[in-house]
Structures are given as structure tokens and as C-alpha cells.
Design brief:
Blueprint (H helix, E strand, L loop, with lengths): L19 H37 L27 E3 L1 H7 L2 E6 L9 H14 L10 E5 L3 H13 L2 E7 L4 H9 L3 E5 L10 H10 L11 E5 L4 E4 L14 H9 L2 E4 L7 H17 L6 E4 L5 H13 L4 E7 L4 H7 L31 H6 L5 E5 L1 H15 L5 H17 L6 E6 L7 H4 L7 H5 L8 H7 L6
Parallel strand pairs: 2-12, 3-4, 3-8, 4-5, 9-10, 9-12, 10-11
Antiparallel strand pairs: 1-2, 6-7, 7-8
């Protein structure tokens, strides 16, 4: 044994390992770091939650969140508060969120339920109508407003007379008759023609009660937006003097004729500014990039558009307009004229399109309310409307009407024009169901006789081409 070699015990071997103290420091550091990470994440989540709560505090509870103890009062309680539905096929294909306000879920089957209810309620508040007095409401319409008026009238104790063109879809006529409305069908005519359906409705209201042997008709109020008559005789004439209590009771209890006049009556606009617009704002938590709608009376696009712009001036409001309507040119060029209106070129009637419910060749009071905030317009062809109707049935299972199809085509065109693909939100109106256009447009049936007779091309690739095109024309 060599005695001079040092003893090599395990304790004396210099191992290059951290000491227990160092390991302890490392562990403390890891624990502290993890705790800080968890704490910071928790704080971030907390502040995000608080931010969401503050944002939600700006909105009333969503009325579409139906509670099991909620009971609505009659058919009027069912109107409005319709859901927003994401159109999956179009949204996924475009990289945006296309949201449709499902107005076909109203009890009368269309967006016009809101208008009919507001018109009648406003008339009652003003003392122009009294329920259950055998009074009669008159309206000229292509169908949906008439169905809504007949629905509300029946529930409120009124009769209804609906005058409409004789070329509208038969389903609308049958619905009106089922609701007990008197339906008068007339030949399509220009608004300047006394026999045009709106003018005839005004005339019928003005002469209500004159055929009665025991009653006399007197004009209560007549203006550009309302006509009311009564069978109460002469008691309201200016030279009658102060009415007695008996006179007032007679005036309230006698039947009246009331012309609703959806085109000029500002209750139309108010229904959407006070109702539909705020609903959309709540349902989207205030995140809307664009709103698209067609226009017939103009109340929908004006009322909703004005409300959304009042909440966020950056919201883009866009018109969807069918062939033959002059509104496209009014928005784009400031003139109300369409080439198809040239003498001898019209196929069927004033607004030369298979689409019902939107399109017009005059500027109504309700449209004028919102004209200044509409920044763009797209013209939608009959072929595009029919193609979209069929596309949306096949890909989303949604059976929609022709005006809804126009709105969805315009959504695609706007997205392409703007170059949007990062989740922008476009809200539009799904006005009514396709079951009101079944016999006319032949949305899903192989029988295309109507479309062939009217020379409307049937091309299933139109929507696919729009979705894949690099841009879209206006």
C-alpha cells in the first residue's frame, strides 16, 4: 500500500452537481414563477371577464332567451325578438359572418308583422281606431303586409280588406282568405293610375260606410299618410260645436274605415328604428360591420339602418335591389330611372322581376328617411335570386323567399367588393319563408314552367361562381 496517496472517500470526490441549497433555490424559483404565471393569467381572465360584464351592462337582457315562466299576451306578444342565424355555407366560404335576422319566425310569417302591429297600435293610441267596433282596415300590398294586417286585425277585433296585384303568388291569397280578409285582386298599374292597388285601398277607406242605408260616412282625418272614416254621421263636422258625452261615445263605438298606407305611414319606419334595430344591436353585442336590406316601402332599411348608424357611424348600410326597380339608380346616381322602364320593354309589370316584396320606382316617405345613410347598392338579377333560393335550401336547409335570396346575394357582392375575409359581420333580413313563393319561383321542385315562361335562366352554378370570384360587380 502506498501510504502517501490521499484517502478518496465519496465525500472528498469533487462532483460537479448543484448543492442542496442551489437545488432548493431553483425549486423556489420554479414555484414562484409558476405562481406568478397562474396569478397573472387569473388576473388577465378576471379583467377580461370584467370587461365583458361592463360591455354586457350596456345592453338589456336578450329577449330571445325565453324563460320557462314567460307567457306572452296574444299574437302581438309573439311578434319581434326573432333570432339571428349564422348562414353557415356562405360564412364558411367567405371567411366572414353572415347573419340573417329570421323574420319569417314572426307569427304572420314575415318582417311585416312588426309594421302591421305598430301601425295599428299607433292608430289606437291616436284615437283613430277602436277595437271590436266592426271597423275595417284597408291596405294595398303585394301580400306580406296584407297577411300581417289580417293577422293583427283578427286578434284585435277588426275586419280587413286587402287589395293586391293579380300576379302575386297564390299562396299569399290563400293565406289572406284563411285569415278571413276580403281580397280584391287588380291588374298591376303605375302609382299615378287611380286603379293602382294602393290608390284603390285609399279610395275604399275614404268611402267606407257610404253604402249603408242607415249610416253616413264622414272623414275624420285625411293626409298623405292616413285616411280614416266613420259611420257616426255628421257629429264631428267643424260646425257641430262641442260634442256631448253621448256624441263622443257614439263616435268611439261606430265602425271606422282606416287606410294603413304602409308606404307613407311613418309607423313603418318607427317599428324598425324602435324594435328591429335595437334587437340586432343587442344580439351582436354592438359588433356590426354592415347591414344589407332590400326596400319596398323603405321602412326596414331606413329604420334599422338609421338606428345602427346612430350607435356606430362606421356601420355600412347597403341596398339590395331587384331588376326593374329604380332605387339602385337613386342610391348610385341620384336619379330614379331604370332602363327596363323604357317604353315597350316591360315583361310583366312596373317592377319587372320575379322577386316579390322589394323594388319600387318612386321615393316613399319611409325610404326618404334613410336614403342619406345608404352608402352602396347592388342590383340582383332574377337568375341570381332563384339560384340563391335553391343554393341555400341545398346547403343550409333554409327555405327562404325571393327577397331574402336577394339580400344574401348582395351580402356576397359586398364582401367581395370590400375584400373582407377576417370575420367581419354582415347582418341582413330573412324577410319571409319560401312557402309564400312556392308556386311562382319553384324553388326546389323540378317543375320550372314558370321560370321558362318568363325567360328567367336557371343556372345552379351562379352562386358557386360568385363565391369563388375574386371580386363582384355592382
Amino acid at each position: 500500500m502506498v501510504s502517501w496517496l490521499p484517502s478518496l472517500s465519496p465525500k472528498s470526490i469533487p462532483l460537479h452537481l448543484p448543492s442542496a441549497l442551489t437545488v432548493r433555490h431553483v425549486l423556489y424559483g420554479v414555484l414562484i414563477g409558476f405562481s406568478l404565471s397562474v396569478t397573472s393569467t387569473s388576473l388577465a381572465l378576471y379583467f377580461q371577464q370584467r370587461k365583458r360584464e361592463r360591455l354586457q351592462d350596456q345592453f338589456e337582457p336578450r329577449p330571445i332567451e325565453i324563460r320557462i315562466d314567460e307567457v306572452v299576451d296574444g299574437v302581438a306578444g309573439l311578434i319581434g325578438n326573432t333570432p339571428l342565424v349564422r348562414i353557415k355555407s356562405l360564412s364558411d366560404a367567405l371567411g366572414v359572418e353572415i347573419l340573417g335576422k329570421a323574420e319569417y319566425m314572426n307569427p304572420g310569417g314575415s318582417v311585416k308583422d312588426r309594421v302591421a302591429l305598430r301601425i295599428i297600435e299607433d292608430a289606437e293610441r291616436q284615437g283613430l281606431l277602436y277595437p271590436h267596433t266592426a271597423s275595417r282596415i284597408f291596405e294595398g300590398t303585394v301580400g306580406s303586409t296584407g297577411i300581417s294586417i289580417a293577422t293583427i286585425a283578427k286578434a284585435r277585433g277588426y275586419d280587413a280588406t286587402i287589395i293586391m296585384p293579380d300576379d302575386v303568388a297564390d299562396e299569399k291569397v290563400k293565406a289572406l282568405q284563411a285569415l278571413g280578409a276580403d281580397v280584391e285582386r287588380v291588374r298591376p298599374a303605375s302609382i299615378v293610375d287611380k286603379k293602382q292597388f294602393v290608390n284603390l285601398a285609399r279610395e275604399r277607406a275614404a268611402h267606407f260606410g257610404q253604402d249603408s242605408i242607415s249610416s253616413h260616412s264622414a272623414i275624420l282625418q285625411e293626409s298623405s299618410s292616413v285616411v280614416v272614416t266613420t259611420t257616426a254621421g255628421d257629429i264631428i263636422a267643424p260646425d257641430h260645436g262641442v260634442m256631448t258625452v253621448q256624441d263622443q261615445d257614439e263616435l268611439r263605438s261606430k265602425p271606422r274605415g282606416f287606410f294603413a298606407d304602409q308606404f307613407e305611414n311613418s309607423s313603418n319606419y318607427a317599428a324598425h328604428f324602435d324594435g328591429t334595430g335595437p334587437e340586432i344591436w343587442r344580439q351582436t353585442n354592438g359588433r356590426v360591420d354592415a347591414f344589407i336590406s332590400g326596400a319596398g316601402t323603405g321602412g326596414t332599411i331606413s329604420g334599422i339602418g338609421q338606428y345602427l348608424k346612430s350607435m356606430n357611424e362606421d356601420v355600412v348600410v347597403v341596398l339590395s335591389d331587384p331588376e326593374g326597380s329604380g332605387l339602385y339608380n337613386k342610391v348610385k346616381y341620384g336619379v330614379m330611372f331604370d332602363q327596363k322602364e323604357a317604353e315597350g320593354t316591360k315583361r310583366r309589370h312596373q317592377v319587372d322581376t320575379v322577386v316579390e316584396g322589394i323594388g319600387i320606382n318612386r321615393l316613399t316617405k319611409n325610404m326618404d328617411y334613410g336614403l342619406s345613410i345608404i352608402s352602396d347598392a347592388f342590383r340582383i338579377t332574377d337568375a341570381e335570386a332563384v339560384a340563391m333560393s335553391r343554393y341555400i335550401v341545398q346547403h343550409d336547409g333554409l327555405f327562404l323567399g325571393s327577397s331574402s335570396a336577394c339580400n344574401l346575394v348582395a351580402c356576397i357582392k359586398l364582401v367581395k367588393k370590400m375584400g373582407w375575409k377576417e370575420g367581419q359581420r354582415i347582418v341582413t333580413i330573412l324577410c319571409d319563408s319560401g312557402n309564400r313563393h312556392y308556386s311562382k319561383v319553384r324553388l326546389v321542385l323540378p317543375n320550372d314552367d314558370y321560370l321558362h315562361r318568363t325567360d328567367i335562366p336557371i343556372d345552379s352554378k351562379i352562386i358557386d361562381d360568385l363565391l369563388t370570384a375574386p371580386g363582384a360587380s355592382t
